[in-house]
């Protein structure tokens, strides 16, 4: 009882202190120091009409490389901890007619929608992360509908690795051509798509990177699902 | 060579980790050899960076995407980062050799990937010049650390990892809220610019933001009261992972904490945050030393000892004086060497004899004389006996503490050091004066590494001048914020509300 009272009092003190801090940063009064620069220069410097994407992939691309790595670690960690010499699916009940028919019908469209999201990342809201996650849901649906379904695990893992390597390679090509890691050589050096701003073929290396990220995220999340659904079989 | 190639420090481990799935078919030995190869390359790159920075005396600023800070993200490889990136790479190389010799539970390919990424995360945390990027690298480091803690797949490993994950998750969210407060009031994420503008911050916001960041990083830096995960994690993790945790993961957390602390020294509530950190540091030392005394397992005992040393470093760095920072950095270097030596030695015994409880160490002087000898040197150094490296840094920390007026802190730390001497001498006694046993063969590569580290301990102990000058330069890099701001080529921006 005393312990609980002490905990509550401590929480109240910390809460009050936090609230004091938060009131010092009034909501809605944005400090547009760096933000304004992005808004003023985004199209000229990156060729992407979606400022958020330009910041995520180009201006702060280094962070995104890190975020991709975080997801990679999550999937590697799950793979390491759930590793068994031999694993198999053990689900017993087949999905209902509605689920199996729906899955057959929907999977291509979900995949198509995922591709749409990441290909248009530099034009519309979205990009590689949501696109990849959408693609992974298609595989999740297949897993739920069919007890025997399995992704080609080894191939997915290799694709994941290749996509990650290609991302770093795009950055290293920038280092070789422009002298800076993750330098947007397609836009700033080759000036590709300079007359197509706002259309599909523009935005420098953003569409390339987002495609790689989507492939990576899609295979990674599918791999996590696969790892979690399978169970060890003993000989 | 162009300084921008220092970005290879990040690019190399990353691309190598992504490459592992493609070669995992080649078998366990090949994958482990690959880890040795990549860490060797990383050490070479880090040595080049170190050499460049220390000969020119100027930091290397890597600008990702050619964007000038604060628009883009920069890596700041100054004297501190250049030195510690080299330490990270070198220790990773040693653990890679250790893993090559020792048995690693399958899947070895995943282990190799995670080791590379842990090295990457710590390197990034030390090198980055952007506070959000720091958060990203902190996530990389900590999530890798959770996975590696649980890697042995035993019940206690899972428990330790879960504890770590919960505390780490809380720490990360604290850090993120603190970061948001700073970004909300300054409109920039670049560390140099934050330092430039910090004086204009509302003192309450600055105090709350900075304290949240310190609490968030205290999980990684193993400071009381957020270090409850650490002893369990050290004990449950594979031997090589414990080496990495103690030698550089905790250092990366400490560094990040102190760097941010000093960058914001112009805020008006700065000294209250310093006192908070000093209290945490002293408590860390005292609690950990007394906990270490009770341990029957040597690995766990050394883990507690490592935590107490980290508290000592945090104490020195939080003094707010030039002498304190220099001494703290010096102790960071020495601690990295000694704890790498101790954990590698204990791990090697664990691999050869199948356990690390104090009983396994009885008669080690007869069974594995070389390992026992290097462990003895490491233990004597850890106690702080003259002619061993830690003596010099410890004494400088204590002097700096008295100069800064924290006599009570120094007194508590000295008392705790006596406790430390007790359990290390007990350990040495167990190795040399008890037990019997047959001689066991010691591998050449591990013997060389252990002897190299032991030699470093003694060389620095006898001739501390060179290491001390490195520490002074690295300490100046942290302490002299004006120089830090000047070194970063900030793009002049005019914004709304700045």
How would you describe what is shown here?
The complex is a heterodimer of chains A (235) and B (498). In chain A, 68% of the residues lie in helices and 3% in strands. In chain A, helix 3 (51-59) packs across helix 4 and helix 5 (97-119) runs antiparallel to helix 6 (128-145). Chain A has one domain (2-232). Chain A is globular. In chain A, strands 1-2 form a two-stranded antiparallel sheet. Chain A has 235 residues and is mainly α. Chain B is mostly helical. Chain B contains 20 helices and 2 strands. A two-stranded antiparallel ribbon of chain B has the order 1-2. In chain B, helix 3 runs antiparallel to helix 4 (108-127), helix 4 runs parallel beside helix 10 (239-263) and helix 16 packs across helix 18 (444-462). Chain B is globular and about 75 Å long. Chain B starts with 7 loop residues before the first helix and ends in an 11-residue tail after the last helix. The interface between A and B is large, with 59 and 69 residues.
What's a concise summary of this model?
By secondary structure, chain A is mainly alpha-helical. Chain A has helices spanning 2-23, 34-46, 51-59, 61-81, 97-119, 128-145, 153-178, 185-188, 206-229; strands at 87-89, 230-232. Chain A has one domain (2-232).
What gyration radius of chain A follows from the Cα positions, in whole Å? 23 Å
Count of distinct strands of chain A? 2
| Total count of helical runs of at least 4 residues of chain A | 9
Mind summarizing the main beta sheet of chain B? 2 strands, antiparallel
| Structural domain count of chain A | 1
């Amino acid at each position: 009882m005393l312990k609980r009272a002490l905990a509550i009092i401590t929480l109240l003190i910390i809460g009050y202190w936090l609230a004091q801090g938060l009131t010092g940063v009034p909501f809605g009064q944005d400090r547009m120091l760096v933000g304004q620069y992005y808004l003023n220069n985004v199209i000229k410097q990156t060729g992407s009409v979606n400022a958020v994407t330009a910041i995520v992939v180009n201006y702060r691309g280094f962070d995104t490389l890190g975020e991709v790595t975080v997801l990679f670690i999550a999937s590697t960690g799950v793979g390491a901890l759930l590793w068994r010499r031999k694993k198999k699916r053990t689900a017993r009940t087949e999905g209902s007619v509605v689920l199996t028919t729906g899955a057959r019908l929907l999977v291509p469209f979900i995949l198509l929608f995922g591709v749409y999201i990441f290909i248009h990342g530099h034009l519309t809201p979205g990009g590689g992360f949501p696109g990849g996650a959408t693609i992974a849901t298609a595989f999740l649906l297949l897993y739920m509908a069919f007890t025997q379904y399995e992704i080609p695990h080894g191939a997915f893992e290799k694709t994941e690795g290749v996509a990650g390597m290609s991302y770093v390679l795009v950055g290293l090509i920038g280092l070789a051509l422009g002298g800076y890691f993750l330098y947007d050589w397609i836009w700033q050096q080759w000036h590709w798509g300079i007359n197509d701003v706002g259309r599909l073929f523009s935005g420098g290396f953003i569409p390339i990177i987002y495609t790689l990220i989507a492939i990576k995220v899609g295979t990674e999340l599918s791999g996590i699902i696969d790892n979690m659904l399978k169970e060890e079989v003993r000989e | 060579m162009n300084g921008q190639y220092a970005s290879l420090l990040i690019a190399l481990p990353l691309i190598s980790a992504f490459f592992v799935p493609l070669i995992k078919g080649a078998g366990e030995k090949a994958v482990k050899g690959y880890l040795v190869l990549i860490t060797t390359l990383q050490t070479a790159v880090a040595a080049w960076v170190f050499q460049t920075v220390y000969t020119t005396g100027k930091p290397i600023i890597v600008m990702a995407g050619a964007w000038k800070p604060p628009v883009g993200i920069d890596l700041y490889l100054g004297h501190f980062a250049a030195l510690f990136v080299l330490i990270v790479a070198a220790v990773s190389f040693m653990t890679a050799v250790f893993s090559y010799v020792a048995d690693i539970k399958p899947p070895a390919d995943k282990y190799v990937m995670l080791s590379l990424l842990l090295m990457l995360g710590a390197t990034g945390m030390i090198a980055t010049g952007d506070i959000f990027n720091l958060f990203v690298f902190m996530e990389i480091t900590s999530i890798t650390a959770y996975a590696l803690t649980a890697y042995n797949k035993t019940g206690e490993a899972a428990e330790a990892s879960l504890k770590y994950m919960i505390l780490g998750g809380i720490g990360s969210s604290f850090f993120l809220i603190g970061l948001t407060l700073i970004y909300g009031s300054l409109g920039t994420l670049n560390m140099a610019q934050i330092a430039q503008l910090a004086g204009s911050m509302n003192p309450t916001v600055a105090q709350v933001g900075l304290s949240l960041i310190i609490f968030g990083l205290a999980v990684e830096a193993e400071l009381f009261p957020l270090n409850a995960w650490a002893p369990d994690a050290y004990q449950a993790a594979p031997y090589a992972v414990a080496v990495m945790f103690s030698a550089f993961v905790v250092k990366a957390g400490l560094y990040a904490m102190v760097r941010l602390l000093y960058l914001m020294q112009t805020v008006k509530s700065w000294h209250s945050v310093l006192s908070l950190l000093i209290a945490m540091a002293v408590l860390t030392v005292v609690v950990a030393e007394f906990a270490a005394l009770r341990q029957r397992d040597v690995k766990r005992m050394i883990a507690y000892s490592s935590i107490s040393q980290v508290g000592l470093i945090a104490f020195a760095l939080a003094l707010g004086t030039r002498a304190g920072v220099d001494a703290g950095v010096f102790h960071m270097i020495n601690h990295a060497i000694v704890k790498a030596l101790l954990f590698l030695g204990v791990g090697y015994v664990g691999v050869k004899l199948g356990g690390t409880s104090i009983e396994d160490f009885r008669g080690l002087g007869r069974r594995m004389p070389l390992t026992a000898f290097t462990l003895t040197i490491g233990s004597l150094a850890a106690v702080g006996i003259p002619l061993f490296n830690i003596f010099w840094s410890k004494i400088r920390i204590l002097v700096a503490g008295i100069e800064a007026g924290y006599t009570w802190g120094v007194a508590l730390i000295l008392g705790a050091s006596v406790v430390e001497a007790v359990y290390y001498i007990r350990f040495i006694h167990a190795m040399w004066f008890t037990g019997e046993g047959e001689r066991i063969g010691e591998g050449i590569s591990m013997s060389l590494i252990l002897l190299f580290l032991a030699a470093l301990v003694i060389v620095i102990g006898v001739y501390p001048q060179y290491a001390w000058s490195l520490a002074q330069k690295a300490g100046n890099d942290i302490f002299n914020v004006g120089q830090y701001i000047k070194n970063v080529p900030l793009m002049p921006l005019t914004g709304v509300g700045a």
